[in-house]
Design brief:
about 350 residues; BirA Bifunctional Protein, domain 2; 2 domains; seven-stranded mixed sheet; about 40% helix
């Protein structure tokens, strides 16, 4: 090491010995207090090194003192890291904690099984070109019944079947998502391709197969030249996407006031693969919902010309799909919020 003897304070100190003593102090520090004292004594504002650096007037003295400061600062950092490791090791010995190990995995929530089914259905329908529409849950009797060609004496209009929110039976909680189709047709000109998912309400006594609140998705297609064959192809694609490519599909004639002709659709049981089981009542088929060609009277109610436009509509219960797909015995289980069940999906 250079033994330059600059003038003033710089020349008055044996810097070789100063550095040796400082390195020894940093290396022998056994706690944060001792390290702090060494920092103050050898690198602090009143230390000989800092005082000498303020008086440097020549290049040789500056190189000497800055070199010493750099080595001492490095030794101080090394001592601090050593003390941190030693403290961590002592804590580990005391309580078994190892700070170098990965932390505990924090449990993450996920979507409810009914929301999963709804989003899966929406993704399929968006892929077919449908627009997803949110509609009102509090509706008028006209949108829920009259516009859909529902007879005045139909049992579903009874307060024992429907949740009315006024004494005049003009406002109610919607009984089906078809009300959204009416509102869409009232607000835009055809062609129309929309899907309306959401909650619906009926005065059903809770049972293994029904609840007063459940979920549906309804689809409406209005264009020129639409036929029942278009409905069948759409439904077949939808169910094969939802339940797998090997799923078979069939339609049966039925009756609904808002479609003519009307059909109901079944798919082969996705639990037993159509071999027969308690879920499909050993028939190999599961009923999924209703559909049909939109009745001309419905088009007239919303101002569409039934001679120019045609269309189809269909709807199904999402709760029923989730229940059957997972082989659950009771639809009320979806509403109990039992984490032992919900964590499985």
């Amino acid at each position: 090491m250079s033994r330059e003897k600059p003038v003033g304070t710089v020349a008055a100190v044996d810097w070789s010995r100063y550095e040796t003593d400082a390195l020894r102090a940093f290396d022998s520090a056994r706690d944060d207090s001792a390290l702090s004292e060494a920092n103050v004594a050898y690198l602090g504002r009143k230390s000989a090194l800092k005082q000498a650096l303020r008086e440097v007037r020549d290049r040789h003295a500056g190189v000497l003192l800055n070199g010493i400061r750099a080595r001492l600062e490095a030794a101080s950092r090394a001592a601090a890291e050593r003390l941190a490791r030693e403290q961590a090791s002592r804590r580990e010995d005391a309580d078994g904690f190892d700070p170098t190990l990965p932390g505990d995995r924090i449990p993450r929530g996920h979507l409810h099984v009914l929301t999963q089914i709804r989003r899966e259905a929406e993704d399929i329908l968006v892929g077919l070109g449908y627009e997803i529409v949110d509609s009102r849950e509090v509706e008028t009797a006209w949108h829920n019944f009259d516009a859909l060609n529902q007879p005045l004496n139909h049992p579903s209009r009874s307060p024992r079947e429907t949740f009315y929110v006024d004494d005049g039976r003009e406002t109610l909680l919607r009984a089906h998502t078809s009300t959204g189709q009416i509102r869409v047709m009232e607000s835009r000109e055809p062609p129309v391709y929309v899907a309306v998912p959401g909650r619906v309400y009926r005065r059903d006594t809770p049972s293994p197969t029904s609840t007063p609140v459940f979920h549906q998705v309804e689809c409406l297609a209005v264009d020129r030249g639409i036929t029942l064959a278009d409905l069948k192809g759409t439904m077949e694609h939808f169910f094969r996407e939802l339940f797998g490519p090997g799923r078979e599909f069939r339609m049966r004639t039925s009756f609904f006031p808002f479609t003519e002709p009307s059909v109901e659709f079944d798919v082969t049981c996705f639990l037993c693969d159509a071999r027969g089981c308690p879920v499909c009542k050993y028939s190999g088929w599961i009923e999924m919902g209703g559909a049909g060609v939109v009745d001309p009277a419905v088009f007239e109610n919303v101002g569409y010309d039934p001679d120019e436009w045609s269309g189809f509509a269909w709807g199904l219960g999402l709760d029923r799909i989730a229940l059957l797909r997972h082989g659950l015995p009771d639809i009320r289980m979806f509403w109990e919020n039992d984490l032992r069940l919900l964590r499985q999906f």
